[in-house]
Amino acid sequence: MNDFQTIADRVEIEALRGEFTDAAMMRDRPRLASLFTPDGALRMPNIPIELVGREEIRAGGERLQNQWDFFVQTTHPGTILLDGDTATGRAYIQELARTLDGRQGLNYAVYHDRYQRTLEGWKFTERVYEVRYLDTSPLAGTAPHTAQGPTTTPADATTIPADTTATPTIPADATTTPPPAASFTDPAPAEQLHRAATALRTGGFTVEILDDAASARIRIKALVPKGASVLTGASETLRLSGIDEDINTGGHYDAIRPRILTIDRATGADDIRKLAAVPDFVINSVAAVTETGSLVLASGSGSQLPANAGGAAHAIWIIGAQKVVPDLSTALRRVQEHALPLENARAQAAYGMPSAVNRLLVLNAEPRAGRGTVLLLREAIGY
Question: Rounded mean pLDDT of 163-186?
Fold first, then answer.
């Protein structure tokens, strides 16, 4: 190999490493995955994460990128050792990041690389990430929340997120150990509420942000006309706010739940099912709402889910601020780790039997304009 070829190879490999950082910063995961050979691997032993193949690398990164409040990666040139059509090298990384759930940090790390010459040019066959220094002190800066260049649609995956570039900026134990369930009781800050509201509106929901449950109680009276048939969910939010009482004992509506309670479940199961499935209005809460615009409802019997899913002509969900979470995987954790134990205790006391999450409903969008209304509260209420 002549000197010119050596120089050209080194320049191309350096450009490959720069392209990796640019794709990470621009949240362009398909481009980042394309920088690897088809069987290339991204390994992060500190976390631990191991992604093999372009599809795993792309999907793993997309699951996390929507959690970022901000992320900055700076790459410093390191060594490149050529060996014909293969090469090894190191690149030095400084990163800082903060996620939407508050995890944050500054770190310095090393990428240990292996490269392969291909018909498409030099590609990574392996990147191994080694953290050399980690500082988890609160970051003083803020993100401007402006457009961040090309993005891919977040997968909002149903597995615990795995990052393909940024995770090591957060403590390794923080990325593998879920935040404590107590965090599911804290009201979301204003910016988090607004992110959720914006995403919900994009999905076709009507969204109002209200101060408290008392405001929601007043708003329900304006939204639901007298005489309408209304099904209320078995919700602590509705009970504590007084909305359940207003609907089911106030005499102003055709309240479905009291009617159901008068029907013998053995002989009138079909009547119960039909009554619950297609009311004029269903009023309920949810177990979680994501900043990416999904509503998550959990149920033991599933009897109230059809109306929420689309059977009711109109749906209204009243949601306390503590139920806002970054993504679907965190929402599912909230159901299992927080809402279910509380509902189980209630069911044991009320019915002498445990509860269970036998049915889950995830609403990602509302295709019927004007059907679904979310009253997002600034206060915490319910589970």
Answer: 46
